C-alpha cells in the first residue's frame, strides 16, 4: 500500500497527522509528508480515517498490485 499526497490540494490542515500520527507529519506552514511507517498494516485503519477526513481530499491510497 502506498499513500499519495496531492500537493495541489494539500493545504496543511494537519487533520491527517491528528488521525494517523505514525503515518503523517505536517510541518508548520507546510504540506503533509508521508512517514515510512505509513504502509504498516497496524496503522492502516488510522490512514483510512485520515484519507476520509482530509478536508481537501488530498490523500489517496494506492494498493500494491
Ligand atoms: S489533512 Fe489533508 S490538507 Fe491537511 S495536511 Fe493532511 S493531506 Fe494536507
Describe the structure.
A hairpin with a 7-residue loop joins β2 (24-25) and β3 (33-34). This protein has a two-stranded antiparallel sheet with strand order 1-4. Strands 2-3 form a two-stranded antiparallel sheet. It is of the alpha+beta class. The radius of gyration is 10 Å and the shape is globular. Helix content is 23%, strand content 18%. It has one domain: Alpha-Beta Plaits. The chain has two helices and four strands. Bound molecules: iron/sulfur cluster (SF4). Residues 5, 10-16, 26, 31-32, 54-56, 58-59 line the site of iron/sulfur cluster.
Tell me briefly what this model is.
The chain has 65 residues and is α+β, with helices and mostly antiparallel strands. The protein has helices spanning 15-19, 44-53, and strands at residues 2-5, 24-25, 33-34, 59-62.
Features:
Alpha-Beta Plaits, globular, 65 residues, two-stranded antiparallel ribbon, binds iron/sulfur cluster, two-stranded antiparallel sheet, alpha+beta
What is the topology?
Blueprint lengths: L1 E4 L9 H5 L4 E2 L7 E2 L9 H10 L5 E4 L3
Antiparallel strand pairs: 1-4, 2-3
Iron/sulfur cluster binds next to helix 1.
Strand pairing plus helix content: what structural class?
Answer: alpha+beta
- The CATH class label is Alpha Beta
Number of domains: 1
Specify Rg, calculated over alpha carbons: 10 Å
Mean pLDDT: 96
Extended strand count: 4
Q: Percent of residues in beta strands?
A: 15-25%
- Spatial order of strands in the largest sheet: 1-4
The distinct ligands, each listed once, are: iron/sulfur cluster
Q: What is the global morphology? A: globular
Main sheet specs: 2 strands, antiparallel
